[in-house]
Design a protein that fits this description.
By secondary structure, this protein is of the alpha/beta class. It has three domains: about 5-165, Rossmann fold; about 180-270, Rossmann fold (3-Layer(aba) Sandwich); about 275-385, Rossmann fold (3-Layer(aba) Sandwich), CATH 3.40.50. The protein is built from 14 helices and 14 strands. The strands form three sheets. Strands 2-3-1-4-5-6 form a six-stranded mixed sheet, sandwiched between helices. It starts with 9 loop residues before the first strand and ends in a 5-residue tail after the last helix. It binds iron/sulfur cluster. Iron/sulfur cluster binds near residues 300, 301, 351, 353 and 355.
Length: about 400
């Protein structure tokens, strides 16, 4: 259970005013002393992530958020972090202490959740103190399911879990990455280059996830480096059902794989699985309208150390500038950072986003849409640059 990547877990964020009892609530749900608990408002300085299993949903990530109504410089930072959490939230647990009355904070957070279509489960915390708060009335007025929880005795925690199960979105992640494109006993080849940029002694997450997904579909999976691919193909009696490669090897691999064998990439499968493939494909149209000096944002959803021929830092800028015939004004964001204001950019190029959940990817796409900035992902951009976009997208478009 602990090995399930965070990016494919249902994300349940615990929101509430400072000292609403969020950290104690997480401790009660997980039955652990996890978050810093203090009676001083605003003690939790960073969102805290905790993995657990809630049956029958499966693996989930619980997120303890900072107080969004905090003040001062540190408070602003907390607010930014809380907004980043909102972007990846699949279900919100809105906590109101029985000592307090719902106020502007609760109204605002409710509004934010509604805007993003995030389902909400209410919690009235600290029920041992009950001082006549009208939290119950407020939840009822807003037609929100809610539970009363005493985190100290864990009274109400089971009911809360049941309410979470009832209200959890079922479509937070498509059920398969590649399984619907193949059938049992198909042979599928995964091409995983092992170059200087590859991590030592392991495969990267998209490769592992596609491998597991293909095995779940009953396929026979061959894994090879690009230079052994030709031999791998020749060793088969019949052509494989599909070849999936790292997009960076498109040029080489597309020349080795026969034209009639479907070819795609991990990144393109991910564009379909986590994002919106059509939106990324639309973004391609802008490439040939880019001009020298245009602002381009390259977004990577994790903070890996860039290699000397790094795809995001070196190769993509080089390809784009060669195509444009001049220098572009390129900037980068990594990890959880994504600009609120994208208006000045002419294009956003996003990585395969294997480390963030689907809600966060869709949130980023929505921001691009609002700012009317086209967005592409690495695989689609590389397919376009190598002149084989139709070929590598057609196996995944239905
Ligand atoms: S840069 Fe993006 S695709 Fe690459 S490992 Fe990080 S999150 Fe995954």
């Amino acid at each position: 259970m602990l090995d399930t990547p965070r990016s494919v877990r249902l994300h349940i964020a615990i929101f509430g005013r400072r000292n609403a009892g969020k950290s104690s609530l997480i401790n009660a749900i997980t039955n652990q002393e996890l978050a810093v608990v203090s009676s001083i408002p605003g003690t939790t300085t960073d969102p805290v992530f905790k993995s657990m299993e809630i049956s029958p949903i499966g693996p989930v990530t619980l997120i303890d958020t900072a107080g969004i109504d905090d003040e001062g410089e540190l408070g602003e930072l907390r607010v930014k972090k809380t907004r980043q959490v909102l972007a990846k939230t699949d279900l919100m647990v809105l906590t109101i202490s029985s000592e307090s009355t719902p106020d502007e904070f609760d109204e605002n957070i409710l509004e934010e959740a509604k805007k993003r279509c995030i389902p909400i489960v209410g919690v009235i915390s600290k029920v041992d103190i009950d001082s006549g708060s009208n939290a119950a009335l407020w939840f009822e007025k807003n037609k929100l399911p809610y539970c009363r929880v005493d985190s100290l005795t864990r009274q109400g925690v089971d009911e809360l879990k049941l309410t979470i199960v009832k209200n959890a979105p079922v479509d937070y992640l498509p059920s398969t990455i590649v399984g619907d494109l193949i059938t049992q006993n198909d042979v599928i080849i995964l091409v995983t280059p092992v170059d200087a940029g590859a991590p030592k002694s392991r495969l990267i997450l998209p490769q592992v996830q596609v491998l597991r997904d293909a095995l779940d579909a009953g396929a026979n999976v061959m894994v090879t480096r690009e230079h052994e691919l030709d031999n791998a193909l020749k060793s088969l009696k019949n052509p494989p059902r599909m070849v999936v490669t790292d997009s960076q090897a498109f040029d080489f691999v597309s020349k080795v794989v026969p034209e009639d064998v479907p070819l795609t990439s991990f990144s393109i499968l991910y564009a379909r699985y986590k994002g919106n493939l059509r939106e990324f494909l639309n973004g391609i149209k802008v490439i040939d309208t880019l001009k020298e000096g245009d602002k381009v944002l390259i977004a990577e959803a994790c903070t890996h150390y860039p290699s000397h021929e790094d795809i995001g830092r070196i190769k993509i800028p080089r390809w784009l500038e060669k195509r444009v015939g001049g220098k572009l004004d390129i900037s980068w964001v990594v990890g959880g950072d994504f600009p609120e204001n994208l208006k000045d950019y002419k294009l956003v190029v996003h990585c395969g986003a294997c480390m963030i959940n689907r809600a966060e990817v869709l949130n980023r796409l929505e921001k691009c849409k609002e700012a009317e900035v086209p967005v592409v992902n690495y695989g689609i951009l590389i397919g376009f640059m190598t002149g084989i976009l139709d070929r590598v997208v057609s196996p995944v478009v239905r």
